[in-house]
Write a structure and sequence with these properties.
49% helix; globular; Rossmann fold
Length: 148
């Protein structure tokens, strides 16, 4: 995908800006005519932002919104489970983009044992990298953006 930010298929790209991730998801859906999936670990998935981005580019927001699939993980374990289930979702050739938010937030929870948090986070990152490479899709992960 070309433009202000260039992504390479099959590689996990790290971003620090949620709005940019949503912009890339919208453009991916429009350019490829396939779906995008967003795993949201910090409650940042915002359909109003998607609509705003569509209007800026002149895209039909109803079509784009139908093709962006969101799933929220409110805890480290829920995000871990969502990432573990991606194989089922990405089978076939229906997705072109994967975005993940909240990895830093979910795995730095004070109520989670630090060793367990490191183990879970490591497993998630390894799984994400494997899936992105295997399915050769565009992918971004948000690092360093806190809630609010």
């Amino acid at each position: 995908m070309k433009g202000d930010t260039e992504l390479n298929k099959g590689k996990l790209t790290v971003l620090s800006n949620h709005a940019l991730m949503m912009d890339l998801a919208v453009r991916s859906v429009k350019d490829t005519k396939k779906k995008a999936i967003i795993l949201d670990g910090c409650s940042k998935l915002n359909p109003y932002l998607v609509t705003k981005i569509c209007k800026i580019y002149g895209f039909d927001e109803n079509i784009v919104l139908e093709r962006i699939i969101g799933a929220r993980g409110f805890t480290a374990y829920q995000l871990y489970e969502l990432i573990g289930k991606l194989d089922e979702e990405l089978l076939g050739d229906q997705y072109s983009y994967l975005g993940v938010t909240g990895v830093d937030e979910r795995f730095s929870d004070d109520e989670l044992d630090p060793d367990e948090a490191r183990w879970l986070r490591s497993r998630c990152m390894r799984k994400l990298k494997e899936l992105v490479k295997e399915y050769d899709i565009y992918s971004t992960i948000i690092r360093g953006e806190k809630d609010g």
